[in-house]
């Protein structure tokens, strides 16, 4: 956790930069501690924290020691919400295949923002085991978030490319 304002006055810029860095790092690394997946991220110290475990690299100690928790969740609710989001991602893939790159770019950007807000709302109301957070983790673990990111990047590349025409 760091104070974003101490990095730069443009807090939104800092948030976006760190989110992109986190995404790239987590995409390229699969760190596990005793069969538990480790996800790296940097959070603004001025925002509420929802994780069940926080380890300080700087101080080499647990700030919040994780403890096993019992929880109940509706697998049907997770499946239903995830299926709807997967269908949306598949529709965006079809738009890409049809060459509708501007739509794909906008749709991926909006959906990614919606998913981020969706997860955050779940963390705030239901914590780490909320349906919203578990749906987000399902989409990430099954590669759908990576697909969404790739579609956005590829749509942008297609929009910015100029093909040579022959007369």
Salient structural properties:
167 residues; mainly alpha; 2 domains; two-stranded antiparallel ribbon; two-stranded antiparallel sheet; 6 helices
In short:
The chain contains six helices and four strands, in the order H-H-E-E-E-E-H-H-H-H.
Characterize the structure shown.
With 167 residues, the chain is mostly helical. It has two domains: 4-64, no CATH class; 75-160. The protein has helices at 4-7, 11-28, 75-97, 101-126, 131-141, 144-160; strands at 32-33, 36-37, 54-56, 61-64. The chain has a two-stranded antiparallel sheet. Strands 3-4 form a two-stranded antiparallel ribbon. Strand 1 (32-33) and strand 2 form a beta hairpin. Helix 3 (75-97) packs across helix 5. The protein starts with a helix and ends in a 7-residue tail after the last helix.
Q: How many strand elements? A: 4
Number of helices: 6
Structural class given helices, strands, pairing? mainly alpha
Listing every helix as H and every strand as E from the N terminus to the C terminus, the arrangement reads HHEEEEHHHH
Q: Summarize model confidence as the mean pLDDT.
A: 86
* Large-scale geometry: globular
**Radius of gyration, Cα only, in angstroms?**
19 Å
Side by side, the strands of the main sheet go 1-2
The largest sheet, given as strand count, sense and whether it forms a barrel, is: 2 strands, antiparallel
Tally of domains = 2
Give the terminus-to-terminus CA distance.
58 Å
Helix content: 55-70%
Provide the low-confidence segments as ranges: none
